Amino acid sequence: MNFLLGGGKRALVVAFMLALSGLSACSSNDAKKADPKPVATTSATPDQAAADQAAVSDLVTRYWAAEVRAQNSGDDSPEQFSDVARGGFIERTLKSIRDAKADGVMRQGQPEVTDIEVAVTGDTADIRACLDEDDWIFVKDGKDLGFEKDGSGPWGAEATRTADAWVISDVRVPPAGEKSC
Which CATH fold topology does 2-23+46-172 show? Predict the structure, then answer.
């Protein structure tokens, strides 16, 4: 199975996350879905900084809801991410969903995202969180594929403020030691 090469769940998750964080030659012809362009803003007041952090934390929750819906259903349409994410990494995510679906693999359940940390600098935000996928299983023919439970691990992303809202613009595993879970 193309989707399952490489061993246990940790290897699969690491491979998936590396695929999400790698450079991609993929591009979209849809300019609206292209990598977001930041908009100019003035210096943040303490109230604005708190509002930005809250908005980005909410964005993380909405992004993971879209990711879970897509992976649990096998839906590889980019529209489901249009309000929460833009950029080349979405195309890699959708390709992973298509590959899994072609192998008859889906996901059930959902991950737990905790300890969300947001650092906003101007129109970009660095996001770090803990991601536990133990209850978000891989299934084939209705049966759990039985990947090892690895517990919580670091997850990271970048968000960009657009004219409309904050959107996830990249997903990556934080460098070792930058996020403890």
Answer: Nuclear Transport Factor 2; Chain: A, (3.10.450)
